[in-house]
Amino acid sequence: MHGTPVWDPYPYVHRHLFDSENLQNHWARLHDGDQEPLPLDPEVLQAWVLYHRGEFEAAFREGRLLGPAGYAVMNKACLIQADYLERNEAARLKLYFDTAERAKAHMAAEPGNPNAHYFYGYALGRYSQSTSVAQALAKGYGEKIKTAFETTIGLSPRHADAHIALGSFHAEVIDKVGAMIGNMTYGAKRETALHHFRTGLALIPRAAIALTEYARGLLMLDIQQFESEAMCLYEQAAAVQPLDAMEHLGVLQVQAELAS
Q1: Taking CA atoms, which of 35, 88, 120, 260 is between 20 and 30 Å from 79?
Q2: Is the pLDDT of residue 107 over 60?
C-alpha cells in the first residue's frame, strides 16, 4: 500500500482563519482531547495551522518533511480525511492502514509518546470497522487496539480521546460478539465502557465528536435503555459551535444523521 494520496478537499477552509499566533492562543482548547503539546518548532506549528484550517493534505505533506516531529499532524490529518471526506473505500482503507503502520513505527521510536499509541489504536480500529470487525478480532487486532488505548491512558491519564475510544472498543466488542464472549476473550465489559465514556466526556464536555461517539456506544450497549440519553447527546453535539475544521466536520455529520 504505497503511493501518493489524492485527497478530496474540505470545502470550508475560509471559516477557520488560523495562523501561528492565534493557533497558540487556542491550542489548549483545540487539543484538550488528545493532549498534544504545543510545538516549539515553528515548522511543526505551521503544519498544525494547515490542519486546523482544514487543509488536511497540505498538513500531511508538511508533516512528512519533518520526520518524527511531524508524525502526529500527519496521522491526525489522515484520520480526519478518512473519517469524514474520503468517499472511495479503497482510498479510505489505505489512509487507515498507512496511518497504523506509521504510528507503529512512531511507537517503536518513541514508546513514551501517548499519541503514537493512540493513533495506532484509532487507525487500526477504523481499519477493522471498515473491513470486518469479526475478522479483525480473529486476527488479534482487538488486543492490539485495546492495549494501544490503555497504554495511551497510562501515559496520559487526561487523554479524553483515548478514554472515549476505549469506551467505544468495549461497546463494539460487546455489540459484535456478545457480553459473555466479549468479556472472556477480550475483557470487554459494559461497566468499563461506561466508565471510559463518562471520564472522557467529563474532560471534554463540549466536543461534538466525543458526544457523538458516546451516543453511538450507548446504542451499541443497550438501545432500549440508552436511546433517550443517546439522542440527548446527539442533540448536544449538533448544537456545538465548532472552532476548527475537525470540529466542524463532526458537527456536520451529526446534523446530517439527525436530519435523516
Answers
A1: 260
A2: yes
